[in-house]
Design a protein that fits this description.
Shape: elongated
Mean pLDDT: 95
Helix content: 40-55%
Radius of gyration: 23 Å
Number of strands: 12
Distance between the termini: 37 Å
Strand order of the largest sheet: 6-11-10-9-8-7
């Protein structure tokens, strides 16, 4: 299923900033020096390895915002699985514009498709368990909306987007507040009825306190599968349970089989390798 589309104003702003960063004050000197202003060409974006696509709209925006007259035709959609050698888009028109926008389009697509591809590996690893893979707030500054979107392209789910859309009481909050009970009570008094309250715990004792205090969800941090299973059994559906902390591809299946509903990992955004995508000029018009 294709994820919800990114908001166009967010795309326009990000692409504009990226183009300004790359073009500087004088523009693309190499292209201006070597190509005639009226030269035209056809270019093909091609994927060199198996993966999941994400970022088509950003690539389209890069070629649209560089100047007028380029035609961008996508051959795949975000969330599609691709194979080595597959063409994913064709761009035609002014050769100077194609060359000057090429790197920005590829940077977004390689990065986002790498995250989508890595996320898909986690999702496939826990297939059939009922658990969901979630990203965290550990994202590249300025790129959070795109990286979280890429996670969804790979079949993952999003945790909170920022500090302003949910309450997650962590160990440092608990330490300053004076305990789990006090922190949750303060949060419930502060929050509106639509704001979820999640508590991070690392012991079963704290877990019991979070349940008794009425937390909406509990994040079970760095717990071994045995403790996770005990927590799932004790909760009896009273709160939504999330496992986190040091989870990787080698351990994620065992965690999912404990019965937790969510598994969050920074690996899918922070350790993903960019997908190898290139652009080649195919035909001179």
């Amino acid at each position: 299923m294709m994820p919800a589309q990114l908001a166009q104003p967010i795309i326009r702003r990000a692409v504009e900033n990226a183009l300004l960063e790359d073009l500087g004050q004088a523009g693309d000197l190499t292209t201006q020096a070597t190509l005639s202003p009226d030269a035209t060409a056809v270019a093909v974006m091609n994927v060199r390895e198996k993966g999941v696509i994400s970022g088509i709209d950003l690539a389209r925006a890069a070629f649209a915002q560089i100047g007028d007259g380029l035609k961008f035709e996508a051959h795949v959609a975000d969330g599609d699985l691709v194979t080595p050698g597959q063409d994913i888009a064709t761009i035609s028109g002014n050769a100077r514009l194609i060359m000057s926008a090429e790197r920005i389009a590829l940077n977004f697509m390689c990065h986002m498709s790498g995250i989508a591809t890595f996320t898909k590996r986690y999702v496939d690893e826990i297939e059939g368990t009922g658990a969901k893979i979630c990203c965290t707030r550990k994202t590249t500054p300025g790129m959070r909306a795109f990286e979280k979107y890429a996670v969804k392209c790979g079949g993952g789910s999003n945790h909170r987007y920022g500090l302003d859309d949910a309450i997650l009481i962590k160990d440092n909050h608990i330490a300053v507040a004076g305990g789990v009970k006090q922190a949750v009570a303060a949060a419930k008094a502060f929050a509106g009825h639509l704001v979820a309250i999640e508590v991070e715990v690392d012991t079963l004792e704290q877990f019991g306190e979070a349940l008794d205090a009425g937390a909406t969800a509990v994040l079970l941090d760095n717990m071994k599968p045995k403790l996770l299973r005990e927590a799932v059994h004790a909760a009896k559906g009273a709160a939504r349970l999330e496992a986190s902390g040091g989870i990787n591809l080698d351990s994620v299946r065992k965690v999912a089989e404990t019965g937790v509903e969510f598994i969050s990992t920074s690996q899918i955004t922070m350790a993903a390798v960019p997908l190898d995508i290139g652009l080649d000029i195919k035909i001179d018009i």
